[in-house]
Amino acid sequence: MAEDVTISRKKPVYPVNETLRKYLREYQREARFPVSYNDLRNFREAVPLMDKNGKDTLWECPIYPPHEIENLHNGLKKVYAMLKASGNLRIVQHKYIDRIDYCTFGNTHPFRIRIVNRLNDVYDYFYIKVADASRIYGMEIEHIFSPNQLNYMVDKSTLVEEHIPGIPGDVFTRLHLDNKEYNPKRIAKEFVKFNERCFLTLLGDMRSYNFVMQITPDFDDFQFRIRCIDFDQECYEGNKKVYLPQFFKENYPYVQLGINYLTEKTFIQYQQEEASSIVHRLRSERTRVAYLRDVMRADNISPPEKVQELREGLAAHYDDAHYLNCKNMADIIELNLRRVIRQVKL
Question: Which domain of life does this protein belong to (predicted)?
Fold first, then answer.
C-alpha cells in the first residue's frame, strides 16, 4: 500500500572521482565542453517562468549580460552537437537557442536549454547540471539494466543530459489514467515491472513526478513505458521502501490499478519477466557491469549507517543473512542481481 516514505532531502552532491572518470572515459561519456555549469550560473537576475495557463512552473529564466549572450549561445549549440552527433556542427547549422531555464529546487539545480530549428520550428531540450556521482551511477545502471538508453556526457563538474520525452507521471494520473482507449492492465503491468527494476537496482524516490509515461500506439492497442527522469537518489537511502515506488502515496493511482486488474499470479509473472530481462542484459554487458561495480565499491556514495540499515532491512525482507556481509551499496546491488540470476535458473 502507498504511504509517505521519508527521503533525505539534503543528500550531498558527491564529486566525480578519478576512478569514475576513467570509467566514463572508457565508455565515451567524457567530453570537453565550451560551456560549463558555472558559466551558466553567471547571471544576477531572473524572471519566473509561467506555463501557458499563467501558473508558476518553479523554473526561472536567467538574464545574462548582453555582451555574453552570443558566445554563450554558440557554446551551447556546440554542446548540443557533442551530445547528439559527436560534435558534428552541421546538425546545429539552422538551430538557435530559444531559452535557458534554471531550476532552483532539487539537488543539482539544473539548467534546461531549449534549442529550436528555425526551418520548421521543431524544438528540443537538453540539461546542464552539477556532476553528481550518485546521479551518474543511477544513469549508468539504468542504461545497462533497463530497456531505456540514456545519453549523457561529463566534463569535470559539469553534467549534460539528453531530454527524456514523456508525460510526467503525476500529470498522466490526473489527466489520462481514465482514458477509455487505454488498457488499465497494460499500465498496471508496466508499473509492476518498473517497481521491480527500481528495487533490484536501488533507484530511489520514484514518485510520480520523477518519472514520465511514454505511450506508443500499436496496431491493436497502446503500449506504455515508464521512464525515470531523476537519478539523484541512486543507492543512497537506508530505508528499503524508498526503492519501491509502490510505497509512495503519489503513486497510489498506479498501485490501485494493480489491485483492481491484476491477480497474484499475473503480478508474480510480470516480476519474473522483468527479472529475466535484467539477467539477459547483465549477461550481455558483464564486463561493463563488473567494471562499474568495482568503481562503485571504491567510491563513497552513501553514509555507513544507511548501508547498515539497508543491508539489515533486505536481510529481513529476503530472509537471507548474506546481506549482512555487504560492506557498501555496490555489494548490495550485486547480491540483488545474484539472487535474480538464481531465480531465473530455477
Answer: Bacteria
From CA 277, how far away is CA 29, in angstroms rounded?
A: 25
Q: What is the DSSP letter of 110?
A: -
The predicted structure's pLDDT at residue 329: 97
User: What cell was used for 85?
Assistant: 552527433
Q: Name the 3-class secondary structure at 338.
A: helix
Strand order of the β-sheet with 211-217 is 167-168, 211-217, 222-228
Q: What angle do CA 325, 336, 265 make, to 5 degrees?
A: 135
Mean of pLDDT over the chain: 94
Residue 98: what pLDDT?
Answer: 96
Is the Cα torsion angle 82, 107, 329, 267 positive or negative in sign?
negative
Q: Which residue has the cell 517562468?
A: 49
What CA–CA distance (Å, rounded) separates 152 from 129?
Answer: 11
Phi-psi region of 202 (alpha: psi -120 to 50; beta: other; left: phi over 0): left
Asked if residue 246 lies in contact with residue 195, where contact means CB atoms within 8 angstroms, the answer is: yes
Give the per-residue pLDDT at 52. 84
Helix 304-318 with 329-345: angle, nearest 10 deg: 20
- Give the whole-angstrom CA distance, residue 334 versus residue 304: 17
Instruction: Indicate the pairing of strand 111-117 with strand 152-155.
Output: unpaired
Q: pTM of the entire structure?
A: 0.94
- Helix (H/G/I), strand (E/B), else coil: 325: helix
Residue numbers in the chain where pLDDT is lower than 50: none
d(CA 290, CA 206): 26
CA 28 remoteness from chain centre: 19
- The 10 Å Cβ neighbour count of residue 190 is 20
Indicate the burial class of 259 (C-beta count within 10 angstroms; 0-12, 13-18, 19 or more): exposed
Strand partners, 30: 154
